[in-house]
Amino acid sequence: MEPPKTFCLPVTRQRAFIDTKVTLDNNRFENCTFRNCDIIYAGGPTETSACYFENFRWIFEGVAGTVVHVMQGLAWKILPPQ
Q1: DSSP state of 21
Q2: Could you give the number of structural domains in the chain?
Q3: Which pTM value belongs to this model?
Q4: Torsions phi, psi of 29, nearest 5?
Q5: Could you tell me the strand order of the sheet in which 46-49 lies?
Q6: Which domain range does residue 69 map to?
Q7: Considering the domain boundaries, does residue 33 fall inside one?
């Protein structure tokens, strides 16, 4: 069995993203704030550590968008955190 692949992602540290679009794919975010943002994810490798998210909207594109579409077609529901 092959060991899991690891990725060396570019790191963004201690940045505030406010009222903007942020693409997660191929990035690592540490101690960042995301406020009033569109968070875009297309299925690529990504990592977050100690980040704060407030009033954000997910946008799933590419492979991730296809997975969400299939799940919705199977009557799966994605609920916000409680």
Answers
A1: E
A2: 1
A3: 0.78
A4: -120, 130
A5: 11-13, 27-30, 46-49
A6: 11-73
A7: yes
